[in-house]
Amino acid sequence: MISDMRYFIDVYGCQMNVHDAEIIEGILRAEGFSPVDDPGDAQVILLVSCAVREHAETRVLGRAAQLGGMFKESPVMVLCGCVAQEHGAELLEKHRELDIVVGPDCYRELPRLITERSRVGLTDFRNEDYEGIQAVRKEFPRAYVTVMRGCDNFCSYCIVPFVRGRERSRPRDSIVAEVRRLSYLGYGEVTLLGQNVNSYRFGKIDFPALLRDVALASGERTWIRFVTSHPKDLVRETVEVMAEHRNVCKQLHLPVQSGSDGILQLMNRGYTVGEYLEKIRMLREAMPGIVLSTDVIAGFPGESEEDFGRTVELLEEVRFDYAFLFKYSERSGTAASGLEGALPEEVRLERLNRLQEIQRRITVEKSGMLVGRELEVLVTGPARRPGQQVCRTPGNRTVILKGTDYAPGTFLNVRIEKADGWTHFGSLPESCEK
Ligand code: SF4
Question: What per-residue confidence (pLDDT) applies to 431?
Fold first, then answer.
């Protein structure tokens, strides 16, 4: 044990960051650090940052400035994550409230750096996979397990390959052992995480082989999901494993980004719209009723009205259950930031609004089709409103139950009474607990 300091941690961004924060807590607690819920009680404040959008970066640096000026005895202020990696030690000059800046490959150094109270920026790429670290999971009965880190794809709008480094995969045996242990501990859902899980490879083991082994190791009482999938790397074998194993959720997030081949090329996505649609067909053929979601960027540089129209057609054709829609925002340091044909902000916004309108209608229609149906759900915990509980379906839909008090981790069958697209309200048919 090297310290008994109290820490407060705050996370921004994607599931990778949420799980990285759990890893950071594992590293700190193993060295004697203890958590507090109020930053005012902390001797160390850690912010895990996201650099995907300029806005997220501004937010986390704003939060650092706010916390840094708040307390009489200033805590050690640590910036972790992608913003730390992107800007490194130069942040220490610009943001005097920061003491330590640490990139995603250097978290093992945190206990030493904090106790030494060094004023330092550490951003080496170390091909780190945090093997052997006991993550501190806080979202029982849902758990994340990282299977690979980094990305080699260099989509032209994305900063991730620059801040997360090259792809590397964790050993199969260690992933399987971790999932088996979580399943034994009663976790009802495990999400395999990676920037591009479909390109997982450890020796001869590829992603379909890993998914099969994980599905077998976790048994029927633990659902398996995985995120994020790159369409060009989603292969038939993965779809077959999903279809074969009852505990692999029939749900997939498959970011398409645009419905225009020309724009996909400018984005350096590595597939055409036709190839993407072929994968959707393959998924639906193997798993009718699979819940599909996607990401779309509206107003990419050079996107004509015609290109945009193709994206509209794609949304209408595929009818995703959910879509995460963004307007293009320039990210300095990426190839797209140098592209000609940048569209005015109002055009990007107007296109985003049109996509949102279309998708809202489709999402509401598709969730409305569930009303009256009985679905299996996993109870995940209390809802914000007293007397209600939140559950998840295998399709990752939210279901609210009123007046129940089941332990998180319980599987139930519920009847869907009402749905508004994103939230579903369920009731219990008689004697349904599994
Ligand atoms: S696949 Fe593309 S969008 Fe996803 S992390 Fe890699 S570069 Fe970024």
Answer: 53
Q: Which residue is closest in CA terms to ligand 1's atom 1?
A: 153
The confidence band for 72, taking pLDDT boundaries of 50, 70 and 90, is low
> 58, 62, 2: which is closest to 32 by C-alpha?
2
Among protein residues, the one with the nearest Cα to ligand 1's atom 4 is 195
Mean pLDDT score of the chain, rounded to an integer?
A: 94
The model carries a pTM of 0.94
Q: Is the CB of 195 under 6 A from ligand 1?
A: yes
Place of tokens 């979601």: 293
pLDDT > 60? residue 434: no
| Span from the CA of 49 to the centroid of ligand 1 (angstroms) | 17
Examine the pLDDT at 104 and tell me if it is beyond 70. Answer: yes
**Cβ atoms of 193 and 227 closer than 8 Å:** yes
Q: Which domains does the chain have, with CATH numbers?
A: 6-122 (3.40.50.12160), 142-368 (3.80.30.20), 374-427 (2.40.50.140)
| 3-state secondary structure string across the chain | CCCCCEEEEEECCCHHHHHHHHHHHHHHHHCCCEECCCHHHCCEEEEEECCCCHHHHHHHHHHHHHHHCCCCCCCEEEEEEHHHHHHCCHHHHHCCCCCEEECCCCHHHHHHHHHHCCCEEECCCCCCCCCCCCCCCCCCCEEEEECEECCCCCCCCCCHHHHHCCCEECCHHHHHHHHHHHHHCCCCEEEEECCCHHHCEECCEEHHHHHHHHHHHHCCCCEEEEECCCHHHCCHHHHHHHHHCCCECCEEECCCECCCHHHHHHCCCCCCHHHHHHHHHHHHHHCCCCEEEEEEEECCCCCCHHHHHHHHHHHHHHCCCEEEEEECCCCCCCHHHHCCCCCCHHHHHHHHHHHHHHHHHHHHHHHHCCCCCEEEEEEEEECCCCCEEEEECCCCCEEEEECCCCCCCCEEEEEEEEECCCEEEEECCCCCCC
pLDDT in tens, 111-127: 999 999 889 999 998 88
For ligand 1, the distance from its centroid to the CA atom of residue 363, given in whole angstroms, is: 25
Residue 196 beta carbon below 6 angstroms from any ligand 1 atom: yes
- 160: CA distance to ligand 1 center in Å? 6
